[in-house]
Design goal:
This protein starts with a helix and ends with a helix. It is elongated, with a radius of gyration of 16 Å. It is mainly alpha-helical and about 140 residues long. It contains five helices and no strands. The protein has one domain.
Length: about 140
């Protein structure tokens, strides 16, 4: 595992999801949340904008050494985001009405939270240290 791969995966997922919510929140949100009011579409668009910002942050940090003291604000912000998202999805993904899509999303989000958690609490991955000549 490398922080570059983690940053790219995070940027891709957030970029796709953010773009969908920014430009198609009126189509996406009612499918995800039955009975979602049309007047609340702006909430999805704001979330989409935030996710696009995170995607840009992750994309531009993909070549940096991340973990431990290196890139701490970037790593910690991602850890908090993915950990809170995983925590929020845990209960609905285990419920009797959970779709396969929701369960898959919960698994991916949990893996990203774990990856960023490892960077926060353990420091840079060995592959990153070798790549940056710091082994």
């Amino acid at each position: 595992m490398s922080s570059a791969l983690l940053s790219r995966a995070s940027a891709f997922i957030l970029g796709v999801a953010g773009t969908l919510l920014l430009f198609a929140a009126d189509l996406v949100l009612p499918q995800m949340i039955p009975g979602f009011p049309e007047s609340g579409i702006w909430v999805g668009q704001l979330l989409g904008a935030a996710w696009l910002g995170f995607a840009a942050l992750n994309w531009y940090s993909r070549t940096q050494l991340l973990g431990g003291i290196y890139g701490r604000p970037i790593v910690f912000a991602n850890f908090v985001h993915w950990f809170v998202a995983a925590s929020a999805l845990f209960s609905p993904a285990r419920g009797p009405e959970a779709s396969t899509t929701l369960t898959a999303v919960a698994i991916v989000v949990t893996l990203l939270a774990g990856g960023y958690g490892a960077l926060v609490f353990k420091g840079p991955f060995q592959t990153d240290l070798r790549r940056h000549g710091m082994e």
